[in-house]
Design goal:
6-stranded antiparallel beta barrel; OB fold (Dihydrolipoamide Acetyltransferase, E2P); alpha+beta
Length: about 350
């Protein structure tokens, strides 16, 4: 019995020793995530835009009155010279008749004054009247001629006002807004519709104040449209100096070419390449930087072991950083760097960065 117990005890000890050996054999080096040190590229920032005409004209009548007809709708395409809206010419015609009567009256008075002056010039030549009387008739003649010229000017003004009862398109374009209807009485200069000229198209973008540096005037960009796969170049023409209520700044981009099917009001995307960024470095996640002193470092995996390599930081780009000092295809540890140390044996979980 004693020997049986001893045998059982020895078996248990050996079994425990075997389990300990197996557990030690299962311990593996830590697994680290790595990324290849590929060259950085210029970043491209994309913003939504709306297609608009470069010029918009607020149209109004040059004389007041009651609107009697509207000949276009919102979205109508018009040509230069097309009649868009008319107001009642009734009162203006009365002014034209009145001005014509005033012209006739002034002309008659002028002719009478000229006849009287001729008579008194003859009397003065015969020494029948003093020179003071002749001066009076000369002054009456000049006053009558001036009144006649004033009546002519008023007559031309009345004729112009009659022509102003028709609102005519100043150029070809699209009606984008109508703010008055038939039956409404409008004053002179009151905006009744808006005409957008379509000979030159632009993309209107609104940028936050911290991204204005990517859109200087004269910068070349790319415009992509939702309606088709067209991709056309453009150039930044104007940057508003004042922010909108949403604290964004309006940027106007002129299109060098207008693809077929693109109309005003459509949406697009504008790509702003960040040409100021350097491209001589490599782009890595911020989590790959290891720094305990003044010099930043990264961990490289070489033959299953870690080595620390100093790098120079060129620029920060959001959650990434551009560094110099790495060789192409170096395997850089991109996470958990503060839990590692140089010379440590690791296993690699390698992921190629998407170019």
């Amino acid at each position: 019995m004693k020997w049986l117990k001893l045998g059982v005890l020895i078996g248990l000890v050996l079994a425990a020793s075997g389990c300990s050996s197996d557990s030690k054999a299962e311990i593996k080096p830590p697994l680290v995530k790595t990324q290849s040190a590929v060259p950085a590229r210029n970043t491209v920032e994309t913003f939504s835009a709306q297609i608009k005409g470069r010029r918009e004209a607020a149209l109004s009548f040059q004389t007041g009155g009651e609107i009697i007809s509207r000949l276009v709708d919102v979205g109508s395409r018009v040509q230069a010279g097309d009649i868009l809206m008319t107001i009642s010419p009734r009162d203006i015609r009365q002014k034209v008749v009145q001005s014509q009567a005033q012209i006739a009256s002034s002309q008659a008075k002028m002719e009478l004054a000229q006849t009287n002056l001729s008579r008194y010039e003859e009397l003065f030549a015969a020494a029948a009247v003093p020179e003071a009387v002749l001066d009076q008739y000369r002054m009456n003649c000049r006053a009558a001629e001036a009144a006649y010229q004033s009546a002519l000017a008023e007559g031309r003004e009345a004729q112009n006002a009659l022509a102003y009862t028709e609102l005519v398109a100043p150029s070809a374009g699209v009606i984008t807004q109508i703010t008055a209807e038939a039956g409404q009485v409008v004053a002179e200069g009151h905006t009744v519709m808006t005409l957008m000229q379509t000979d030159e198209m632009e993309a209107e973008v609104f940028l936050p104040e911290n991204r204005l540096d990517i859109a200087p005037v004269g910068k070349e960009v790319r415009i992509r449209f939702w309606t088709n796969s067209a991709d056309v170049p453009g150039i930044v023409r104007e940057v508003s100096p004042m922010a909108t209520e949403a604290r964004t700044y309006r940027v106007r981009v002129t299109l060098w070419d207008i693809p077929a099917g693109v109309e005003a009001g459509m949406t697009a995307q504008v790509d702003f390449p960040d040409s100021q960024q350097e491209t001589s470095g490599c782009l890595l996640p911020l989590s790959s930087i290891y720094q305990t002193g003044e010099e930043p470092q990264v961990f490289l995996v070489q033959d299953g072991k870690l080595s620390a390599k100093p790098v120079k930081i060129l620029a920060y780009r959001g959650n990434t950083v551009e560094v110099r000092g790495l060789n192409p295809k170096d395997h850089v540890v991109v996470s958990g760097v503060y839990k590692l140390q140089a010379g440590q044996t690791v296993r690699e979980e390698h992921e190629e960065e998407t170019p």
